[in-house]
Design brief:
Elements (H helix, E strand, L loop, with lengths): L2 H15 L8 H12 L66 E8 L2 E8 L2 E5 L4 E2 L4 E6 L3 E9 L5 E9 L5
Antiparallel strand pairs: 1-2, 2-3, 4-5, 5-6, 6-7
Length: 175
């Protein structure tokens, strides 16, 4: 047998000899025996909870404290007209799916067919003419100038009728 083989054999026997006998767990065994000899502990019962009277939230119909307060002047309140109402049969245009507040006027273009407003919003710049619609409240463009676009929206008055509400989209300079 070669000397290298003898040394490895001796090392293997020494390692296997270390696996038997007392491995240093005597302190753990002593602790477990001590725990086993203790009298069983007492588990306290679960505490009883008092029931509280149910609370009913009655302010859901009131104005949210986080929204701006609206001053209502009933004397100056415009009454809606039954003659003004949105046309339910009209085919909606693409820009009517977006809020009018997100649009900003960035310029105008004129040619032989007329004057067009350039409005940025809804993911791009759009060319619109008088009579086109935008915004969710049936907003129709009624006038285009070099400095603004005039829009008339049809909104409910809160009493079953409709109001025409004028809006202006001003030219955004340096855009």
């Amino acid at each position: 047998m070669s000397p290298v083989r003898r040394i490895s054999m001796v090392a293997l026997l020494a390692a296997l000899a270390g696996c038997g006998g007392d491995n240093g767990f005597s302190d753990l065994d002593a602790y477990l025996n001590e725990v086993r000899l203790r009298p069983p502990g007492k588990i306290e019962p679960t505490p009883t909870f008092r029931s509280f009277p149910a609370f009913t939230y009655n302010a859901s119909s009131l104005r949210s404290p986080f929204s701006r307060q609206v001053k209502v002047d009933l004397a100056g309140h415009k009454q809606g007209s039954r003659n003004v109402k949105p046309d339910p049969g009209r085919i909606k245009q693409y820009l009517e799916g977006f809020n009018i507040e997100q649009f900003e006027m960035v310029g105008t273009i004129s040619n032989a067919t007329g004057s067009f407003a350039l409005l940025r919003g809804a993911g791009g710049v759009h060319r619109l003419k008088v009579g086109d619609y935008l915004g969710r409240n049936d907003g129709r463009i009624v006038a285009i100038s070099g400095s603004q676009v005039d829009v008339v929206e049809i909104v409910p008055d809160g009493q079953g009728a409709w109001l025409e509400r004028p809006r202006t989209i001003p030219l955004k300079e340096h855009s």
